[in-house]
């Protein structure tokens, strides 16, 4: 049956803002993060300590992280780190939780990390070890788990192999990414089954859906039925990935919340407060939010 409680892992300030054309001022990012915390999100991914030349939108990661963490709330505030330099910067800014991001395909690994799948995992190993030494939990992302814009449909054993290696490295949870939003529910169920067969229990997975083809909520429902209890989404559905041109925004948090509430699954998020915040951010970004729930709730 369905779980009774789900954790929403909000990625708006990171996955959302990393691809927006306008660079959001640091003060607005901090207001956004404060609003997400106030709306009850239990985990908010707030920044990336990557090369500022690769992702200029998040070049203020230090100020965002140190600023957000000042108001030490119970909200988890993980940040992305690609390498040891990134981890050092993240810890110096006060981060207490980090994420590394691997790829199931060679092409995306090259484009996103400037090295192949194996070399990227080799880059992450010392990062995960150093974080663990400091009791800093690490999430391991796997991108392109369903389809890849250059390689087409992605074989499940490629995904399983990368996910297992991240787990063996010491990642506490693994986020299965549909980076370009091409997954459909049958594929989701089959992949979760394959991961479980390899020893990766659904309780320690998260699903990360982008809504390019409008399948994200159907995919969430399939993953819930398979026992997954953590889902990534972005407030207002902002975002995409700068190195995967065909990716649109993440599943909107508002849409996810509406589904979970309807299913009677506990999530702890205040939908009204979140909607007001997403409208405010849409104004700042100068484009309407793609969230259907947000549009329905705020129609005059
Ligand atoms: P590289 O060029 O191979 O690395 O990039 P390098 O070591 O040769 O360094 C190149 C330059 O970057 C140097 O600066 C370094 O100092 C600097 P330069 O001398 O040219 O001025 N540098 C750094 N600066 C700050 N912080 C660092 C850092 N490391 C190097 N940590 C690298 C390798 C990984 C750094 C690069 O490829 C990169 O930054 N990639 C980031 C890509 C990215 O952020 N993608 C988006 C996140 S993934 C995603 O969105 C998918 C996800 O949402 C899940 C899903 O949807 O599937 C998670
Ligand atoms: Mg993403």
From TrEMBL:
Organism: Lipingzhangella rawalii
Domain Pyruvate carboxyltransferase span(s) in chain numbering: 6-275
SUPFAM superfamilies listed in its UniProt record: Aldolase
Record bears the keyword Endoplasmic reticulum: no
Protein name: Hydroxymethylglutaryl-CoA lyase
Family, per entry: Belongs to the HMG-CoA lyase family.
GO MF term list: lyase activity
Keyword terms of this UniProt record: Lyase, Metal-binding
């Amino acid at each position: 049956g369905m779980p009774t409680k789900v954790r929403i892992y909000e990625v708006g300030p990171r996955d959302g803002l990393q691809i927006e054309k306008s660079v959001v001022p640091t003060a607005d990012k901090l207001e956004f993060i404060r609003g997400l915390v106030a709306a009850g999100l239990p985990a908010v991914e707030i920044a990336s300590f990557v090369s500022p030349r690769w992702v200029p939108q998040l070049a203020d990661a230090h100020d965002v992280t140190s600023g957000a963490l000042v108001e030490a709330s119970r909200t988890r505030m993980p940040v992305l780190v690609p390498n040891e330099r990134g981890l050092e910067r993240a810890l110096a800014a006060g981060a207490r939780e980090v994420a590394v991001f691997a790829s199931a395909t060679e092409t995306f690994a090259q484009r996103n990390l400037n090295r192949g799948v194996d070399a990227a995992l080799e880059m992450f190993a010392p990062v995960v070890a150093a974080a663990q030494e400091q009791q800093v939990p690490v999430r391991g992302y796997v991108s392109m788990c369903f389809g890849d814009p250059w390689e087409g449909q992605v074989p499940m054993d490629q995904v399983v192999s990368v996910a297992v290696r991240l787990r063996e490295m010491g990642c506490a949870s693994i986020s299965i990414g549909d980076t370009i939003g091409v997954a459909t529910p049958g594929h989701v169920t089959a992949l979760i089954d394959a991961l479980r067969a390899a020893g990766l229990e659904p309780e320690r997975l998260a699903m990360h859906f982008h809504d390019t083809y409008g399948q994200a909520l159907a995919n969430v429902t399939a993953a819930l039925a398979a026992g997954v209890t953590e889902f990534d989404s972005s407030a207002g559905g902002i975002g995409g990935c700068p190195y995967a041109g065909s990716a649109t925004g993440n599943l909107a948090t508002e849409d996810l919340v509406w589904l979970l509430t309807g299913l009677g699954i506990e999530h702890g998020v205040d939908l009204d407060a979140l909607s007001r915040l997403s409208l405010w951010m849409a104004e700042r970004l100068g484009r309407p939010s793609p969230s259907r729930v947000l549009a329905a709730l705020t129609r005059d």
